[in-house]
Amino acid sequence: MAIPKFEDFLYPFLYKLKDKDLVSTQEMKEFFIEHFNLSDEDCTLKTKSGAVSQLSDRIGWSRQWLRRALFIEIPQRGFYKITQRGYDYLKSHTTLRQSDLMKYPEYAEYANSSTCTNKKPKSKNDENIDITGQTPTEQLENAYQIIVKDLAADLLQRVLEKTPQFFERLVLDLLLKMGYGDSLSDAGMVTKFSHDDGIDGIIKEDKLGLDKIYIQAKRYATSNMIGKPQIQQFVGALDEQKANKGVFITTSSYSSEARKYAEEKASKKIVLIDGRELARYMIEYNVGVSLKRAYEVKRIDSDYFEDDNNE
Fold first, then answer.
1. 302, part of any domain
2. What is the largest CA-CA distance in the chain?
């Protein structure tokens, strides 16, 4: 048989978690094989790119949609857990479609923030999704944006599972990849964890080391917003170092007061990077990610066809 449509995975995925504390990715895969009575041949079917099986692809996107709707959480890598909202949904429903998820503001925001003209997130290989009104170029670009957005969410989740020390090193690696400090072996350093005096890292602004940038890195839960007092403390730490420039990076976000203070009132040059920006930079500069597959989009070389002297 063919692999069932993507939305057919949503309700069974959630129901599987109902009576268990944690379910692993492997357990979920085995469950769907039995649930849909899939053959070995079914399980080897690939997506059009050939990079992943259709089964794994559908399970992965089911996980993303349910997590976006706050129906499930991922307390540790590769394990899923149902939330109270998920339990409440199962009490009064026996099916689950995207239209049901759209009733929840967290998922609706995710879906509507897509650049797709129909405002609908797409499975990577669900051919039945409506794409009316889009050119093939727009379809490709929109699908890319959705995939990047989900990759960014996964990156932040992975970072939050690591230690604060790991996060400090990650931030330093990112700034080095962005060109600060050039390629010098001593271009950047992480300060000693227990005696950092409010500074988590130092990096040279250029290859000659004419100036230094001081770093504060806070691995906070996304709900733990950075406020103005913490930015003021960072400015004070810069004063002690007689430094003029600093970068404050967090996995969470900043209050409007914190941003206004950094941009308008701080006596130092302070750059604030929140979780969304951090994930975007990690993807752009290949920190913590690797290339899975590249697609080349080509066009006609008009100059070649206009040159009549090439014979």
1. no
2. 75
